[in-house]
Design goal:
The complex is a heterodimer of chains A (114) and B (116). With 114 residues, chain A is mainly β. Chain A contains no helices and 11 strands. Chain A is globular. Chain B is built from no helices and 12 strands. In chain B, strand 7 and strand 8 form a beta hairpin. The chains are: A mainly beta (114), B mainly beta (116).
Chain lengths: 114, 116
């Protein structure tokens, strides 16, 4: 049963436009993540938030900015998208940052940049 | 940095045959990593299949097994008799809190197709 919800599931846009992806989890978890899955299907972490605080910020271009209004929501905004931003963006949550056990993932948001 | 390498797919197996998907890891930032297998079934989100947090231990779920081998830095996924419903993408991953931050490093994924 899905408990991590992402919108939109698909988005097609032009180079230079702004895009936002939304994520909500109903599990009561403290920690949320954004992962990027590129064309080679590699999954890499981008950001992690614990109770609205940024705790992981990998080497990600500055046009990417995460936003968390509360611990159940973590959005991702991309200003001025580039072709290499085409990917599937996966949101996930876990009970807390110390729990390296189960991550719960959303179905993903596929971005295509023309 | 940390890395995970797994069997290059796609892997095609006939129903009731045995399966092994290889996974080896390199953990440079985590002394004692936790190891995971995640699976993505068609039309569904990525979900945990099994995990092992102690070297030498075996994890199992839905007929799949994987043993955490610290000596060979491996965590191969095995199943004695696959079913068509096992067709999915399988990801090996390692994780562990480093510097207070929790993150997973994934392999590239292995597409499994089970032929009825």
């Amino acid at each position: 049963e899905t408990a991590v919800f992402q919108t939109p599931n698909y988005h097609v846009t032009q180079v230079g436009n702004e895009v936002s992806f939304n994520c909500k989890q109903t599990l009561g978890h403290d920690t949320m993540y954004w992962y990027k899955q590129d064309s080679k299907k590699l999954l890499k972490i981008m950001f992690s938030y614990n109770n609205k605080q940024l705790i992981v910020n990998e080497t990600v271009p500055r046009r990417f900015s995460p936003q968390s209004s509360d611990k159940a929501h973590l959005n991702l905004r991309i200003k001025s998208v580039e072709p290499e931003d085409s990917a599937v963006y996966l949101c996930a949550s876990s009970r807390d940052w110390r729990n390296t056990g189960q991550l719960y993932f959303g179905e993903g948001s596929k971005l295509t940049v023309l | 940095g940390d890395s995970v390498t797994q069997t290059e797919g796609p892997v095609t197996v006939s129903e009731s045959e045995s399966l092994i998907i290889n996974c080896t890891y390199s953990a440079t930032s985590i002394a004692y990593p936790n190891l995971f297998w995640y699976v993505r079934y068609p039309g569904e989100g990525l979900q945990l299949l099994l995990k092992v947090i102690t070297a030498g231990q075996k994890g199992s779920s839905r007929g799949f097994e994987a043993t955490y081998n610290k000596e060979t830095t491996s965590f191969h996924l095995q199943k004695a008799s696959v079913q068509e419903s096992d067709s999915a993408v399988y990801y090996c991953a390692l994780g562990g809190a480093t510097g207070g931050n929790n993150k997973l490093t994934f392999g590239q994924g292995t597409v499994l197709s089970v032929i009825p």
